Amino acid sequence: KMTQQMRDLQLAQARKPPGPSSPNAAKRLYRNLSGKFRVNYTSFDEGSLAGRGEKEKLRKSYLFQSNAALFEAVELQDLDRVQELLKQYSPEELDLNTPNSEGLLPLDIAIMTNNAPIARALLQAGAKESPHFVSLESRSLHLSTLVREAEQRVNELTAQVVNEAPNADCSEKEKQLKAWEWRYRLYKRMKAGFEHARVPDAPTNVHLSVASSSSVQVTFWEPLSVNSAVVTKYKVEWSCSPTFSPPLGEAVIDKLKNLHFTIRGLVSGTAYYVQVSAYNMKGWGPPQASVPPFAIPSNWREYDGRAPRRRGQAEALDHLLGQVKTVHQHCVCHEPCKNQPQSRKHSVSKSLKHLFHPSSKFLKTLKRGLYLTAIFYKDDNILVTHEDQIPVVEIDDTYSCLLMQDFLWFTKVSCMWDEILWLRQCVTVSQSSCSCILQTRFKMLLAISQMQGLLGIQDLGQVFFEPVKDKQGNILIVTLKEVKTNQTFESVRWVPICKLQTSRKSVSSPEEPTALDMLLISVQDKLAYHQRSSHALSPGLYLGYLKLCSAVDQIRVLVPEQLPNILCHVKIRSNPNISREEWEWLQKMASVEEPVPAEPEAETTQNHLLQELQVAIKELMTLVNIPLQEAKDFRLYSQEVLDFGGQVSFLLLLPPSDDVCTAPGQNNPYTPRSGFLTLPLQIFELGEEG
């Protein structure tokens, strides 16, 4: 009898799946593992080979336990625990796609128990279905076998528990019986889920658009039906025939984070039909044709054969700059400069300091003049001198009124920080003309060189769009740069911004603060502006609003505070391409005298674009606080689509010609709500180029 009990116990242990199989046991495992999962592996002796071996064994043990915990969490339908494990471990560490002893994967259990939330979480993490289920028959047979074996084991253990007297072995048998009863119910539920499931319905909102001259993009949503099993993949098919005979190609999508697919390598000017179908454990569902039913790969430039505006411009400018440098290198006036040491472009030499007078240093106070300050920041820290001052150098102590043209010239120089020495040589040649403008600009270059030498770095960053001015006649030109590496600087150190603001002793009154005090008070706003200026738009087609206002010496453009390097805008769609057919339709709209053209035919790309534009215009008018009835006098800029790198494109919405630019003193009845600012046009252009 004891021999038979030992055999039964050994058999039960051999057939027991990894990890506990009852709800209570699973909960105990979660509690026990919660602390173990956070073990610090580096506490072991890395210098010992035996220690490394033990560490690897322990790591594998924990990963095995985490795999068992994932199975238990899926079986218990514990979504929170599943998400926690998927976040804590990689798919490889969890063995996410390695079958257990029953030939099942976590995703198999989730979809056969019809637990859609857990199934979606697993699919997002890259989970697959078991490769053992090559057909419906094989899956059905496998489930029937699991149910039959579990039922048989329950019957055997029930008989043993009933026939044996109460003892320690019997207590263990009762635990095994409860575990197998629970597993028997799980397998029956999985088998019933499979038998009652049906193939999925067709995907919904299948939309086809032209992505380029050689590609189209299809987007779609999940099937609406909630009665069928979880969809685990989709199939996209395309053909030149509406009957899909013959088919040209197909693609299976099993990464379901983004339900879209781009069909590439197509022939421009050819119509392509597309349909999409969904798959679950019962097979492929019916296909759903796209709307519109076909698309013709093209681009708006094909309408009149126009070349890209910027094609070859960068190369031409580089060539022109090279020619200018060559001419100046042979200039007699530059002979004394040839022996000056050339600074390296990407690393800073301490010899830069020898280019300047030994008394060159940062300023502590301002004495009515023009100054340059460089703000370097990293996280919440800012770079200051050893006297806890923001680095400031003098440009001109006799210059009390900064002309806008000089400031704009300085902003252009900021695109050539590495060429300051060469620019100084060029301006020096022209100083004989005694031009006040040239002398001021030469002093600007000297100040830049001085700042570069004192800091030990050439790139001073981006120029803030307006200088800081006080009533004492001081003017500060501010540059901003974020430091993301452990870069070393000379003669300076890092301090928290808040500490600098609270510890600085102001020498001015609150009514008339100095430019330095004004800078320190507003430094966080300037840093926020700088960070926002580097943000990029997500790929797509946008509707931009062009609004200018003029002053005596400049033209300014309206931009949003959150993205000051972009016009006021709303997103039309995620596809940035405008097809030839869409552009042709827009041209017809622009040429109509009365802006009430007949709507395009249904289920065409033109009709879809019209609907998208109507929604975007309403949203944009609300954004800039213009009544919608005023939009009837607005017009789309129909000369071109503004293309930014191929991933972002803009259509421009223009006010009536008399209102595009508001003149000084002109009343503007519709003032945008808060969240906007106006930038000098040249500053905006530099930011947009960046």
UniProtKB/TrEMBL annotation:
InterPro entries: ANKFN1, Ankyrin_rpt-contain_sf, FN3_dom, FN3_sf, Ig-like_fold. Residues 1-26 are annotated as: Disordered. Residues 202-299 form the Fibronectin type-III domain. GO terms for cellular component: spindle. GO terms for biological process: establishment of mitotic spindle orientation; regulation of establishment of bipolar cell polarity. Pfam families: fn3. This is ANKF1 protein. The lineage of its organism: Eukaryota, Metazoa, Chordata, Craniata, Vertebrata.
